[in-house]
Design brief:
The chain has 316 residues and is an alpha/beta fold. It is built from eleven helices and eleven strands. The termini are close together.
């Protein structure tokens, strides 16, 4: 049995969302577009794929189909071009709600004094459908066809049935697709699992599947390291926690032995590692180890393909 594998890359944007989310911490503001190309090169080398978030309104700075405050138009255009040419051909694209920050009032065009997870927690199906449809339309206007949604934090976990229905209905409204999927659940230190159907309407023929990540983010500590050497050490420790050099231990080994999908979570900001790109280096070490240890026993695939697999046959 070949084990499926996917990478989940959250928070993709031409800016660093942490700069606004964590104002008490020093973060770099702009993420250079060269990171998109470097990331794509690494993943192409090992055949890795999965899903890549593109934030439609990153950090409430504006819409990527128009302009962003504090960001040059040339930088925004370059990011979108790189995403279209190097990411979209092999990866799923998802929105991550709209801002991954404060809620946007689509009726007034103003930002509210609440985070998006609070909005989703109380949102009706109609409200969330309208909100998510806007996220899909923004991405569509810049040439990126999103087929799913990523949840910032744990947005939707306490209103999940309505949330899953809204994702399906927004996807059908914008793209006329009857299948949608989303990422919300994290099984990083729990028993790994397969995707499952979160909502279905037999009347409309719509279905929405949720794809869980089976790892924590191994490269989170790279951003807080006080030196380049410390960031590289943190990245190596993260790779070791996923799979040791000899391939005998680590979370990826546990998932493989459980015959579950190797769905690995990380974040764009952690790959960037405040300009050191230590997380990206650590990811390359991990991908090389997976290839050396498992070879053709692991098959990299988009998250949408993994999600669809649960509709065809119940995994053993």
């Amino acid at each position: 049995m070949t084990i499926p594998a996917s990478l989940i890359i959250d928070d993709g944007a031409p800016v660093n969302p942490l700069y606004w989310l964590h104002p008490h911490v020093t973060h770099r503001h702009i993420i250079p577009n060269s990171l998109v190309r470097q990331f794509a090169d690494v993943c192409d080398r090992y055949g890795a794929t999965g899903k890549f978030t593109v934030l439609p309104m990153p950090a409430a700075l504006g819409r990527i189909d128009e302009r962003l405050n504090y960001v040059s138009q040339a930088h925004l255009t370059g990011f979108l071009k790189a995403a279209r040419e190097r990411i979209a051909p092999r990866w799923d694209i998802t929105s991550e709600l709209l801002t991954h920050d404060v809620t946007y009032d689509i009726k007034t065009g103003r930002y509210l004094r609440e985070f998006e997870d609070a909005f989703v927690s109380r949102g009706t199906v109609k409200e969330m459908t309208d909100y998510l449809a806007l996220s899909f339309r923004i991405l569509k206007r810049v040439g990126l066809s999103a087929n799913g949604v990523t949840s910032p934090w744990i947005a939707g976990i306490d209103n999940e049935r309505r949330y899953a229905e809204a994702i399906a209905r927004a996807q059908h409204r914008v793209h006329r697709r009857k299948f949608a999927w989303y990422f919300l659940h994290l099984f990083g230190r729990r028993r790994p699992g397969w995707p499952w159907v979160a909502w279905r309407s037999r009347k409309d023929g719509l279905v929405c599947v949720t794809v869980p990540a089976n790892t924590d983010d191994p490269f989170g500590a790279t951003c807080s390291a006080s030196s380049a050497r410390g960031a590289r050490a943190a990245a190596l420790a993260g790779a070791d926690s996923m799979l040791t050099r000899d391939g005998r231990r680590g979370r990826v080994r546990e998932i493989f032995d459980a015959r579950c999908p190797i769905v690995i979570l990380t974040h764009w900001t952690n790959l960037y590692s405040e300009g050191r790109c230590s997380g990206l280096w650590g990811l390359e070490q991990l991908l090389a180890r997976i290839a050396a240890t498992f070879g053709r026993q692991v098959e990299w695939m988009r998250c949408s393909r993994l999600a669809r697999s649960v509709l065809k046959a119940k995994p053993r």
